[in-house]
Structures are given as C-alpha cells and as structure tokens.
Input
Amino acid sequence: MKIAIVASRFHPEIVDEMVSLAEKRIKEKATLGPVVRVPGAYDIPFGVRQVIEKVDGVVTLGALVKGETSHDTLIAHAAAEALQHLSLQYNKPVVLGITGPDQTKEQAVGRIGRTDEIVDACLALLQLSP
Output
C-alpha cells in the first residue's frame, strides 16, 4: 500500500512535526508515497488531486488556529467537504488530519501527538478496499 501525505506549509512549527510523525508511521506500516506541501489548509484538496491517482490513500495534515474572525471555520468546512468528495470520487481514503477549527495554538500543538491515529485511520480504510 502506498500512502501520500499532503500538508499545509502554514503553521510550520506544528505541521512540520506532524509530517515527520506521519512519514515515520507510514514507513512502519506501508510505503510512503509523495509528500506534497501546499500553502495552506484550504489548498490541501488541490494537492490531493495532484497525487490521488498515483497512490492507494492520502493523509492530509494541517492546523487551523482561531483568530479574530471565523475564517478558520470557513476553511475547515470547505476543505473537509472537498476532501470527502475526492475520496468518494476516486474510491480511495483521503483522511482528514487538519486539526481545528476553533482551537488555540496551544491546543494545536497538543494534537501533534495524535498524528499516528490519522495514519492508522487511512490504513484501516485501505483494509476495507476490495
């Protein structure tokens, strides 16, 4: 099984560590495919579209931190919907590893350690595939 990672470059102090953990976990359990970095969480579906035909599944990683507006909520909903659409369109797991919305930077940092669970969700979905 080949799994790609598509991750945001925004909040590198959080997402870079998530990418490192995901790469390690994938290498333990499967084959690491392309690792694509995009500007922000909103751009992750575009990155997924670039690699989805070359792999068996995709892990997405990003962190949305609450600011002064509800922009993080808008991005979260748009990205989640687009990722679900890609997953169903290509009949391949595209796992949502974008943390947030409505989280503080401290909460986002605290969720870095849950990256293994994101990779494991992709692996579990691949077991369901024919």
In short: The chain has a mean pLDDT of 96.
